[in-house]
Design a protein that fits this description.
This protein is an all-alpha fold and about 140 residues long. It contains 4 helices and no strands. It is globular, with a radius of gyration of 17 Å.
């Protein structure tokens, strides 16, 4: 019989739920992928992976965030969403905050990892549930 006593459960920071759906298949798929990338970064940190592993996770997350933001902003522009400028400002602010925290971490501030994960979790859930739902409601009425 296998000894499972020392096996640790794979951590998950965010669990996708249907309540997070913005009722757009493409954006929901993007959001689910962002959840996966954030959870992957969280797991690397939780398992105390080496710096290059964590950096690779951060790089993947940053790249996908930019891809997603571009697609989301294009969707909002095509549908003449009135909150586009404010939404773009939120995206720029997030990218700047992420870059600042990453810089601190690269400079050796390992204490920034926990606030980084708090920011990612809070931003993703809060942004989807409050900010993105505005365009969801708008697109549903168009």
């Amino acid at each position: 019989m296998a000894d499972f006593e020392n096996v640790q459960a794979k951590p998950s920071l965010i669990d996708w739920t249907d309540i997070m759906s913005v009722q757009n298949a493409e954006m929901d798929a993007d959001h689910k992928h962002l959840v996966d990338l954030i959870n992957e970064l969280y797991e690397a940190m939780w398992m105390e992976q080496a710096q290059p592993v964590i950096q690779k996770c951060l790089d993947s997350l940053k790249q996908y965030v930019r891809y997603h933001f571009q697609g989301e902003e294009e969707l909002m522009a095509k549908s003449s969403f009135p909150g586009l400028k404010e939404h773009q400002a939120e995206h720029r602010k997030f990218i700047l905050n992420l870059a600042e925290m990453e810089k601190l971490w690269q400079e050796g501030d390992v204490g920034v990892l926990e606030p980084l994960m708090d920011m990612l979790q809070g931003w993703l859930v809060d942004h989807i549930m409050k900010v993105d739902m505005r365009y969801s409601d708008f697109l549903g009425k168009s």
